[in-house]
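Let us begin with a simple case.
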Amino acid sequence: MRLACDLPDVVGRSLSQWDCTELAQQLQHDGVVDRISPQTVQRLLAGCRLKPWRSHLWLHPRTPRDAAFAQTVREIADLYSRPLSSTDLVLCLDEMTSIQPRHRLAPTRPAQPGQPVQLEHEYVRGGALQLFAAFDTRSGEVYAGQFRRKRQVECLRLLDHLNHLIPAAITTIHIICDNVSVHHGAAVRAWVAAHPRFVFHFLPVHCSWMNQVEQWFSILRRKRLRTANFDHLADLAAKIAQFIDQWNATAHPFRWTASSFDKVLAQAEAALPPDTPLLVAA
């Protein structure tokens, strides 16, 4: 049990993590036992609920999970869950970067009985697009712009697009986004000052999972981009625009039931020291 609870480097083994075979060999090498099988090691570990061959990612916070953090999380949770007046709108904004057309050297073959879709392995790169998108948390509608670069200039073009499309009757547009300079640079701050109905709410560091547009990006990636085969950038842009149009035709919001809000708030309110590891759920 002690050996399984140490990293292999501690005993001079060049392994990333233990498995039952390696543990059995190490026990015999160290003279702990004359002979032991991997199956016996597995049964012993199971008795203590030890699985050293598994790993989970965790994130060490760069900023304290304090009262200010808790207040920000509560504010975002409130924007997601409270009933909105007819003059309010909550949008989640972010970017999907470096989307490549990846033109395949042979056409993709559709599925046949007993055979999956066949995708040519080799492809030719043809540039990349940056997709700026804003997700309406109440209707599920997506507003988007596709550009060659990711700068404040492109962010402002999307904001102008939103300002033009969203009726003037909506007097408060809440924008939830992360803290990258594209969202809060000098040019963007000047634009927001000139358009007071836009109110920005910045997510805490390492909390991109709280941004609902990321969930929509995962749908786009899985349903349209996973087996990418586009002739060129214009073809890629047209297919993404088509996907967005078809999504908006039957758009739906996400039912936000993540328990992660409760977890991070509990840790923040417990006044943990800044160097305490914070588990992050997605």
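The second case is a distinct protein. As before, the sequence precedes its structure tokens.
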Amino acid sequence: MGLLLTSIVCIGTAVPPQPANAPDLDTRVRQFLENRRWSWHDMNIPEEDGREMHSIIIEHKFKSALEIGTSTGHSGIWIAWALSKTGGRLITIDIDPHRHQQAVANFKAAGVAQYIDARLGDAHEIVPALQGPFDFVFSDADKDWNINYAKSVLPKMPVGGCLITHNVSDRGWGYNGDFLRYLRSLPYLETTLFTKGSGMSVSFKKAPR
């Protein structure tokens, strides 16, 4: 992740997107996900994790989302699908050109491209420079940088915002254990674990007392 790639590709429109024609888009996204169900590899999330994020975004009406680690777009499709219902938008970042290109193609094929700003570059550099605010953040990049990502995004999140980090569980050790202890040490976060997929920490930002 040390090399900064300056190419940034925005695959959406300049005008903030409006909520989608739900029946049409829902049909298209569901069909795309069903057709690709067994072909998501290359560090993509399982379906259970995507469904959970989709539900959280809709339930809390989140609109400004950030994804750190696009892979080839499975998680981004679930996030953007939910944002299509709230009138929101996703910025997603990946450093690998091949994965980035595949993700862009998948976003277009799924019908959610207008809700996504897909960026190719080094998240170590891009994330701290982003202005925010972000009410939903999904972190699924280099695990040894999880604490650094959290430190970058948490100040840009409003009260009620949600930080989800992938591949986190109570059984973890090393980077995973250090990160979970860090989350639980922050008094302004309420952190739980989602265990049905690959394991995710789900942290909501609370008002300071």
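The beta strands are 64-68, 89-94, 116-120, 136-139, 162-166, 189-194, 200-205. The radius of gyration is 16 Å.
Keep these points in mind for the review questions at the end of the chapter.
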